Amino acid sequence: MTPLADVGRLAGSYDLVVVGAGPAGLAAAAAGAESGLATLLVDENATPGGQIWRAVTTTPMKRRETLGEDFWKGADHVARFDRSNAAYAPRCTVWSLAADARDDGLIEIGLSMGGKARMIAARQTILATGAQERPFPIPGWTLPGVMTAGAAQIALKTSGAVPDGRVVVAGCGPLLYLLANQLAAAGANIVAVLDTTAPGALRSALPEFGDFLRSPYLAKGLRLVAQARRKLRFVSRVTALAATGESRLEGVRFARGGGVDERIACDALLLHQGVIPSINLSNAAGCAHEFDETQHCWRPRLDDWFCASMAGIAVAGDGAGIGGAESAALRGEIAALGVAARLGRLDAGARDARAAPLRAELARCLRGRRFLDLLYRPAPQFLAPPDDATIVCRCEEVTAGQVRDAARRLGVTGPNQMKAFLRCGMGPCQGRLCGPTVAELIAETRDMSLAEVGAYRLRPPVKPITLGELAALPQTEAAIRAVVR
Amino acid sequence: MSERRSADVLIVGGGIHGCSTALHCALRGLSVILFEKDHAGRHASGVNAGGVRQLLRDVAEIPLSIASMELWLNIAALVEDDCGFVSEGQILVAEDEAELEIARARVADLRLRGFTHEELIDARELRRLAPAVAETCPGGVVSRRDGAAIPLRATQAFKRRAAALGAVICENERVERVARESGVFVATTPRGVYRAPVLVNAAGAWGGALAASLGEVFPVETIAPMLMITTPMPAFIRPVVILRGRKLSFKQFDNGTVLIGGGHLGKAIPEENRTILDWRKLAVSAQTVWDVFPIMRSATIARAWAGIEARMADDLPAFGPSRLHEGLFHQFGFSAHGFQLGPGAGAVMAELIATGATNTPIDGLSPARFARAPG
Ligand SMILES: Cc1cc2nc3c(=O)[nH]c(=O)nc-3n(C[C@H](O)[C@H](O)[C@H](O)COP(=O)(O)OP(=O)(O)OC[C@H]3O[C@@H](n4cnc5c(N)ncnc54)[C@H](O)[C@@H]3O)c2cc1C
To answer: Yes or no: is domain A380-453 CATH 1.10.10.1100?
Structure first.
């Protein structure tokens, strides 16, 4: 692997550019390079690993038990990538990716490193940008002291930091229990875990229970929940939740199954109700997406080799649908086989033969996923906040009530139109944080399905760039060489 | 979908032009069915720069632009929504003496024709109106009543008002075919067949194809003008600023964000409702801003996009009766400056349809000017 520290050192074009250095991206880039493709792996972080293996090569958390064995598995994947001859651009953000922008049919990629922007080209791309946390809009969630469980986990992995004082963890899903255990092991004072898993969810998930029994999730999942229940104050069937406090978080208020309000004083509240594919790049590139009813989120429409509707763009890992780290790595590997075949490095027979065992493994590791998806599907009141005063768009401070009103009174039928009336989705996050909630509120108010309501069309730059960076964008190859010198 | 299958007027296209014509027809008591293949304002009318500009218009467009401006200045009375309209002027900045000389001649010419909305300003007045403009600029032209509005909000306000007055608005319904059968226009959509003696082609970038399907060919191309917007900056400029030499238009909103445009083109793929940005040209815009507004050097670009629009060979719309078919009216090809014209164009079009004539001089925009065009 060749690390590159300056945007001028990148080649003008690659056979394969992989975006995202998590499990899917590491596997895709390693496999691509191993099959002889000129491969570049780009990631905005300083070190490889993505979300789950974040800082696996550099973390100060050396006690293996704290972060758990799944974390340390990442080291092997990073090592394989290190041995490959892929190029690697850390601290590099991709802000634009477009098919059809060039006359030669290559994908055009706009990226920035160290304050310098550059356009490069790729014959094929694999987007492995992973997942983002599903928004969890409750009253008071914008108070200082409230953060997402994911943000807390990043701090833990990169610098060993745990939140100060009394910590309440609230929400549902495997990652929530995992984080509660990791934080407890790292010494956080967790005063309660408030579980919002919908009481009816088990019933709808039950038909999938057979598969779940034979799934690799089972042992792991049960262990996580059991551990959390055993060691921590675990409150189930939470049906209402609010963060309270004047200028910062002072406590949480919650109710169980329509019962009376209960309160817990705390200094930090960590919220999490599952993850959804991060579709920013595929969305901005214009790829077709579809609404996944089971996982209750949008994902790109893909074929058997994870190719999106736009030629030259494939999507692997959680960005293609939530499946977890192991499945992400397998999907990255399969996507890379598809790329190698499309670029003439493999014939179809060899590609299929090599993919077969990977697909079998993938099926095995996705078995039981549906059970989890259905069990941990957030309850409606946590997707579309019933209290009209709840903020849904943090950038522009738009409330649930304003969105409902615009949907009802002004007849707004989709998130893109909502931008013009309320500016939600026009802030720096471009609706990455409020999009799902705004769509839920429109669907609820107008009695439409989420598939009909649609999602924000994201606009590049998918990550902000400065006017200066753009103004200095080299216009010619000679200008690029002049930058390098 | 509509229960109604016939009306006085069928309109193809739910941009600001189609919606405005629908509203004004309804105000005149005409029954209207409007078809929009996506949602109202999905295309040029919802994603443009929002510039409400009389400044620098071709003389052929000025009467229509002035008629429209009167409606903009009182827009809430017409559509029951202020459309986010603010009137803080638009300024053409001359970057050097040569440009100022051209501007002086232009203003003098307009005066002779009786138009007074454009005023020549010197360096001092320029600095007073827009202190952030680079010191080296010697003056410019101002149109003080010009301003800006929020495009999608405005377009949908016209749609809602038209619907409230009885116009039937069919969104997500594409007109797949139009024909003229014994003096009546027949429009076919996936949901039905509709008839009317009058058809208005307000199909924007798709207007050329619609006209061609009725045998009337226009020299029109599809373009994708690009825009970009920054994250909030400290307030530093009120009016909209445009340059003549280098392509730039520049507007700061109340929340501090700055919209940068000026006519650099991306690529349009109208069949897929898609546009592709050309970052190298956006970089040229960024360089121009860097030069003219030093304060912007620390700005961050939050989003960039393009809209799909029709451009005529002479940069003027096809506006008025068809040269081939009685009852067919064209209202398309606004060549990247039709947003401001929307309110007035709808009023004049409804007048034409209802009375057969208008007092607003629009001869220079007539579809008949292409009578000799090839094809
Ligand atoms: C980036 C950009 C910036 C601009 N800035 C400004 C500005 O600052 N000031 C200004 O005055 N102008 C500006 N313009 C120009 C202005 O936006 C357009 O001239 C104007 O909106 C055109 O309106 P329209 O109704 O003709 O077209 P559109 O808004 O494109 O509406 C046409 C509609 O017809 C529909 N349609 C087409 N075919 C069919 C069919 N067969 N069946 C049903 N529906 C159909 C389309 O879906 C579309 O919604 C800008 C344009 C762009 C793209």
So the answer is: yes
Q: What is the pLDDT of residues A232-265, one digit of tens each?
A: 899 999 999 999 999 999 999 999 987 899 999 9
| Domains contained in chain B, number | 2
Residue A292, classified by CB atoms within 10 Å of its CB into exposed (0-12), middle (13-18) or buried (19+), is: middle
CATH T-level topology, domain A137-273: FAD/NAD(P)-binding domain (3.50.50)
Question: What are the chain B neighbours of A427 within 8 Å (beta carbons)?
Answer: 302
- pTM of the entire predicted model: 0.91
Asked if residue B199 has its Cβ within 6 Å of ligand 1, the reply is no
Say yes or no: B213 and B252 in one domain. Answer: no
Q: Is residue B2 part of a domain?
A: no
Q: pLDDT per residue over B175-226, tens digit each?
A: 999 999 999 999 999 999 999 999 999 999 999 999 999 999 999 999 999 9
Which of 246-285 (B) contact A at CB < 8 A? 255, 267, 269, 272, 274, 276-280, 282-283
Q: Do A471 and B283 touch (CB under 8 A)?
A: yes
One domain, residues B99 and B248: yes
Decide yes or no: CATH 3.10.530.10 for domain A7-132+277-346.
no
**DSSP codes, B305-354:** EE--EEEETTS--EEEE-SS-TTEEEEE--TT--TTTHHHHHHHHHHHHH
Q: Regarding beta strands B274-276 and B184-189, do their DSSP bridges make them parallel or antiparallel, or are they unpaired?
A: unpaired
- Bond into A461 cis (ω within 30): yes
